[in-house]
Design goal:
The protein has 17 helices and 14 strands. By secondary structure, the protein is α/β, with parallel strands linked by helices. The structure holds nicotinamide-adenine-dinucleotide.
Length: 468
Amino acid sequence: MENRREFLRKSLFGGIAIGTASSVAGLTQSCAGTATKKPQSQRVRKGKSVMGLRCDPLPEVRIAFIGLGMRGPTHVDAMCNIEGTKIVALCDVRPECVAKTQNILKKHNRPEAAEYTGEEDWKKVCERDDVDLIYNVTPWDLHVPICLYAMQQGKHTVCEVPIAFSVEDSWALVDTAEQTQRHCMMLENCCYDFFELTTLNMARQGLFGEIYHGEGAYIHDLRGLKHNKEHGYHNMWRLEHSKKHNGNPYPTHGLGPVAQIMNINRGDRFDYLTSMSTNQYGLTLYAEDTFGKDSPEAKAAYKLGDMNNTLIRTVNGHTLLVVHDTTSPRPYDRIHKISGTKGYAVKYPEEKVALEPHAHGFLKPEELKAIMAQYEHPLLKYIGEKARAVGGHGGMDFIMNWRLIYCLRNGLPLDQDVYDAAAWTSITELSEISLNNRSNSVDVPDFTCGDWKNAKPWPVIDMGTVSS
Ligand SMILES: NC(=O)c1ccc[n+]([C@@H]2O[C@H](COP(=O)([O-])OP(=O)(O)OC[C@H]3O[C@@H](n4cnc5c(N)ncnc54)[C@H](O)[C@@H]3O)[C@@H](O)[C@H]2O)c1
């Protein structure tokens, strides 16, 4: 048997010219391609591809909202500020939530919507023949059933994040969208935030060169909200999920914008990932401090580790790091880090850009201001001011809803399709599978069934030049 030093020498240098960047890159590529790759099962497409799906333009988008807790009313308010929308139905098991949302319609001089409050009334809502779009803002376990049923009833559907929690459910969404030829979009609002859109524009203009690494996160201290019985999530669904699952249950806020910038599903795709979580401390310590050491909350077992790091490698040899932490005493952070051959950008804790040939330091404040203005995304120029005035996470919720309605009214493909929804949310289950197996790598399915190779990257939307 060869000794360890001999083995390393051969593995690192055997047959490869030492000293060139490309040869070293080639070595890395071939290691990733052979050593860790498992064969991927071939999926037989059940319908027709919905990549770039265009549907008949809708002169007026008739919307039914299901789930009107903390989040739903924000979207109703945004939709009331958008031309060409009609709110047809409001559905929530809590009548008071429906009543509160009717008041939003009243405030905007909109007609009262039909009301539904039964546990399974969402089915009746989906069955209505005067609805075009089912807007799903329910707790996590209802996301997939409602989206599937909506599409089966011939409706387009959009759903809050994360749309799904298993690979099988992600496939079910893809299959149903392909069978019914309906839009199924996950409402990843962070893709429409101001710095994210501007860095997308910078990326598309080549400012960062080839982008080989990105980072995103959802770091948001939700200990109080998760443990809040009266004013938190309905029936404490988020805490219940933390008892049952580890991994990254909420990957898309950080991942979505970075994945779009890195052309995931449009020229590249996730290949495999590896994931690690720390122990859990935050929920227990919070419960001990708030309810007492002997309280059921303090004694409960929580599976969700405080911090999860998931590293994804793409087939083009790029990497994305996704971080989740909702139970630590830390400031809010989505990271949004873009690293390329010519430059670098990061959003949190402060928006910064560094560019060659001086990329060892960040641009000075006045230089940053100038470059942010120069590369301001055209969509922001067009609708940014109104978005800030309407609000909703600083305006990004409004931009997302406005674009959604614009695309539906003009028969355009949506900015995020069912393949994005499936790939981005599959990280929820795949991260858990990896960490339960000592962080061994796990393949990410190709939900596009090969369409990613020829799909064009999401363009920089310029409303001045866009044509329907
Ligand atoms: N994108 C974002 O920035 C963002 C922010 C917050 C929440 N969210 C997402 O929005 C969704 C809702 O979160 P939330 O904070 O509003 O939770 P919530 O618990 O406040 O609201 C959920 C609502 O669904 C209702 N509901 C439960 N079962 C129902 C049923 N069978 N039929 C109809 N309604 C039912 C509940 O009564 C509740 O009012 C979640 O998926 C969450 O992850 C996204």
